[in-house]
Write a structure and sequence with these properties.
Largest sheet: 6 strands, antiparallel
Mean pLDDT: 83
CATH architecture: Roll
Strand content: 35-45%
Helix content: under 10%
CATH topology: 10 Kd Chaperonin, Protein Cpn10, Chain O
Strand order of the largest sheet: 6-7-1-2-5-8
Low-confidence stretches: none
Number of strands: 8
Radius of gyration: 15 Å
CATH superfamily: GroES chaperonin
Distance between the termini: 29 Å
């Protein structure tokens, strides 16, 4: 199934959290924090300002991003979990 977010919304695949601590201890699933990094899968057309003009998104498909911990809504698409959030909830891009 192909999903295209509308307006200023972005579809993100959350990256997996670490399985071990720096000291080598294995972290159980119940103690793991949700990661705040992801890969942008799809981007909407942009936000409409008060004058009716379209403001293009800064984020593009394939970007690796940081986002706020409680932002977005989790959705399941074809058995995989994604997050849909507004572009303004993304706080940074990560460059390799």
């Amino acid at each position: 199934m192909k999903v295209k977010p509308i307006r200023e919304y972005v579809l993100i695949r959350r990256l997996e959290s670490e399985e071990k601590t720096a000291g080598g201890l294995i972290i159980p699933d119940t103690a793991k924090e949700k990661p705040v990094q992801g890969i942008v899968i799809a981007v909407g057309d942009g936000k409409i300002n008060d004058n009716g003009q379209l403001i293009k998104p800064v984020i593009k498909e394939g970007d690796r991003v940081l986002f706020t911990k409680w932002s977005g809504t989790e959705v399941k698409i074809d058995g995989e979990t994604f997050i849909v959030m507004k572009e303004c909830d993304i706080i940074a891009t990560i460059e390799a």
